[in-house]
Structure formats: C-alpha cells, structure tokens
Amino acid sequence: MPEALSLSNVRAGYGATVVLEDLSFDLPVGGKLSIIGRNGVGKTTLLATIMGLTRLHAGRIGLGGVDIAALRPNRRAHAGIGFVPQQREIFPSLTVEENLLVGLRPGAWTLERIYDLFPRLQQRRTNMGNQLSGGEQQMLAFGRALLTNPSLLLLDEPFEGLAPVIVEQLFHALLRLRDEGNLSIIMVEQHAKLALAFAPRTMVMSRGRIAFDGASQALIDDPAKLDALCGIGGLH
Amino acid sequence: MITAALTILFHGLAFAMVLYIVSVGLGITMGLMNFANLAHGAFAAAGGYVVVMATRSLGLPFWVALPAAFVTVALAGAVVERLVVRTLYGADELRQVLFSIALLFMAIAGFTLAFGPLQQQPEIPAALSGQVTLGGIDFPAYRAFVIVAGVAILAALWLLIGRTRMGMRIRAAVDNRNMAEAVGVDTRMLFTLTFALGTGIAGLGGGIGADVLSITPTYGQEYLVLFLIVVAVGGLGSIFGPFLAALCIGVVDVAGKYLIPEFGAFFIYGVVIAILLAKPAGFFGVRS
C-alpha cells in the first residue's frame, strides 16, 4: 500500500533561499505526526512545501504513491491535501458558510458534519470571515480544510494565540478527528505537550533538517532529551 | 433652478454609468491580479467599434451588436491574458505599465488604420432616438437607457460576484490568492475568465456609452485617467465602490462644467484628492 505522504531528499525554500535541506520521511495512510522545533527551523516551510506554496529546489513529494512535486497548490488540494495555515487566512470577503463551501469537494465531510463538530460556526454562518474571534477563525480554518475532503490534513500551529479554554475545545475536536476515520494528519505545534499527546509519532526539526523522528512517548519519558532538541523555554 | 439641478443630475448619472460600465472590470482585474492594465480603455474602444461596424456596416440591430461587442472583446481579452498578461503577474509595476501602455498605443495605431482618425457613432435604434419626459422635463431617451443599463450591469455583477460559486471564488482569490489555491481554486483559469469578463464589460461600456464618450482611436488614452480615478476612489476588487465613485465623479464633473465651466475639471480632481486622503484604499477597496 502506498504511503499517504512520502518526501525524498527535499530541498525547498522561498525564491533562491533554501530553508529545508535534504529532508526525507514517510507517513502511512491514516498516520498521525506531530512536528515540533524552535522558531524558524522550517516547520511552517515544510507544510507550505507539501502544499506547493514554496519553491522546490530538489527532491520528490509523493501523495498516495503519485509524485505531486510539479503540481500547483490547487491540483494538490484536488489530489487530497487539506491545509490549515498558521495565520488561519480566512477570506474576509466571504461569509462563514461561503468560507466553508469555497473549496467543497464531495466526500464524507459535509457542511452538516462540520456544524456538528463546530456548532459555533452554524450560529455564525452568515457573519463575514473578518467578524470572528480567533477561536472561531481557527474552527473555520479547520472546517474549510475538512470540506475539501482531504486524505492528508496539514495543521500549522492551530492553537497559536488562542485562549486556554478555546485551545481545550479545539484539541478535543482534533482528538475526534484523530480517532475517527482514516485521515492522515501532520500537525506543526509549538505546544510540545499538546503535540506529543496528539500523535504517537513526533518529528523534531532543527535548521531545516530532521533532528529526531520517533515515538512521542520517548520524548515524554525523557524531558531532558526534549529540552536538548527543542531548547528550554522554546516550547511550552 | 430645479430644472437645472435635474438636468445636471440626469446627465451626470448618464456620464457616471458609462464610467462605471467601462471601469468596473478594470477594478476587479486590478484587485484580483495586481495587474495595472492601462490598456483597459482600448478594450472599451474595441467594443465601441464592434457596435459601430455591426450597426453601420453589417446592418445588424443595436440589440444584437451589444452582446456581440461583449463576446468579441471578452474573447480578445482572454487571448491577450493567456498570451501576454499572464507573463507579467508578479512583475514590477514599471514593466506592467510599459507593457500596457505599449498595448494601448498599438491599439490606437490599429484603430486609426482600420477605422480612420475620426469619431464614429453607432446606429441607435429609433426607440432610443427620441426624448423621454421625467418630472416635466425632456431628456434624451438614449441617455436614460445608459442609466438603466448601468444599474442593470451593477445588479448582474452583484448577482455574479455575490451569489454564484464563481463569484465566491473570485472574492476568495482577491482576498488571498495563495489560500484560494490551497483550497483548490484554479486561480489561473479564474484570472483568464475574470480578465475576459472585465474586458468584455468594458467593450459593452464602449458600445453603450458611445453617445457620451465618443469612439475615436485615442479613446483609451483620452479617458484613461477617468477610468483609473473611478477604480482608485471606488476601491480595487469591489463592484459597489466604483459605482459610488462613478456617481460622485460623474455628477460633480457635469455640475462643475455646467455651473462654473471656466474651472474645467478642477472639481473632479479636488474631490478625488479629498476622498483618497480620507480613504486611501477607496470606498470599498480591500487594499490601496
């Protein structure tokens, strides 16, 4: 069975600037992966590269066994990648419901299911995208990505800047996603506790490379190793 | 006094509607593609010439010539977008300006060669050649038609942009092109369609407005500043903003020239400066 995602010797960045150096890893179908690391080590660039929003200098990116390296972002979305960006990037000129429907593709995820997962969005369905709180925007970004009915979901720091009570709500929604169905998920997260609790496998990045790729439990059991990899105080 | 005010208002509205129909597509394409298309007026002139040729040379009815102008110019716009404009997305403004100015001058030379340097007028249907009486005052029926056409195009665009899936995608791409791509929107195809739509509407505006803004080879150059003002004051990427801007500019310009003709276009530019100082992104712009 082909991997959900496979990166081989990927070098990528913005224009001539290379951020990711010779990066390779696989994610099985239905696999969950957390990525942690200090600021500026290339975590966001990695997700943007998988989505096709950076310049790929070298390497191969496979999705379900198909090389997608040459595809534009919209073709990658059609191929099955859903993206929740770091800044949420809600469309302000669209209503909440339009934001959800703009990328809608047929599949298991429907508007009703999104409203079931995030009832708040149904209450705000006629509000414009720029009239939402940070937590609501994050729910909307989740819902918008899920309605593209992806096979692989990329989450870039989904809890950044949110109040603890909202983080808790969203994390529970994410755990539902993790435990239901066969969706492959990669989550970049600064909150190490949440990242390690979310996925059985964690990757730590350093200077555009993979510094650790293994069981999350190994880092939970060895805080000193976690600190050495991520830096004390760098993560929460 | 009331008669003068109503006359100014009527002719100001007719002028405003022509400015709106021609400019609205420019605002959408500039908002969506960040492409400063200074040749936009040439597409309007092309639409004017299509209507002139269709009604005068081919003897087609005016009501057939108008959709023909839209379709012909939209197709031409799509070809230009695919062949040339596409290569300039993301280029610096100087390259875009030089390209579109070159295209404008080439169009002027082409129109002069094909149609001569003189002003051209389409054949107006008899039903629109007379007068209509509004509030006891006679007004040219054709200009009343221009006003109705402007409002109808605003309504059609509002439905298209506000109520269709394509419109939803255009708004999303104006807001954030990368994110629109990331949810699966084919922004390249969307750009082609939007450019074709914008130039097609300009062509329609050139045809409808030939009675207000005369069709000459230099049309695109002569009225370029007015079209840019409507877009800048209305706001890039908006359909209501340019409507409001065109109303302000059209009525103020006609009033200024009617009441104090020696000031020329002083008022129009005064109003523009005041509005842009107060609202740099225009009335409804997503960005300046």
TrEMBL record, chain A:
Gene3D superfamilies: P-loop containing nucleotide triphosphate hydrolases
Tree of life domain: Bacteria
PROSITE patterns: ABC_TRANSPORTER_1, ABC_TRANSPORTER_2
Matching SMART domains: AAA
InterPro entries: AAA+_ATPase (IPR003593), ABC_transporter-like_ATP-bd (IPR003439), ABC_transporter-like_CS (IPR017871), BCAA_Transport_ATP-bd_LivF (IPR052156), P-loop_NTPase (IPR027417)
Keywords: Amino-acid transport, ATP-binding, Nucleotide-binding, Transport
Gene Ontology terms: biological process: L-amino acid transport
Domain ABC transporter: 5-232
Molecular-function GO terms, alphabetical: ATP binding; ATP hydrolysis activity; branched-chain amino acid transmembrane transporter activity
A Pfam short name: ABC_tran
Entry's family note: Belongs to the ABC transporter superfamily.
Descriptive protein name: Amino acid/amide ABC transporter ATP-binding protein 2, HAAT family
Organism: Azospirillum oryzae
Taxonomic lineage: Bacteria, Pseudomonadati, Pseudomonadota, Alphaproteobacteria, Rhodospirillales
UniProtKB/TrEMBL annotation, chain B:
Domain of life: Bacteria
Membrane-spanning intervals of the chain: 6-28, 35-54, 60-85, 97-119, 139-161, 223-252, 258-278
GO process annotations (BP): amino acid transport
GO molecular-function term, one example from the UniProt record: transmembrane transporter activity
Keyword Repeat: no
Compartments where found: Cell membrane
CDD domains: TM_PBP1_LivH_like
Topology in the lipid bilayer: Multi-pass membrane protein
Major location category of this protein: membrane
InterPro entries per UniProt: ABC_transp_permease, BCAA_transport_permease
Pfam short name (any one): BPD_transp_2
GO CC annotations, alphabetized: plasma membrane
Family: Belongs to the binding-protein-dependent transport system permease family. LivHM subfamily.
Protein name: Amino acid/amide ABC transporter membrane protein 1, HAAT family
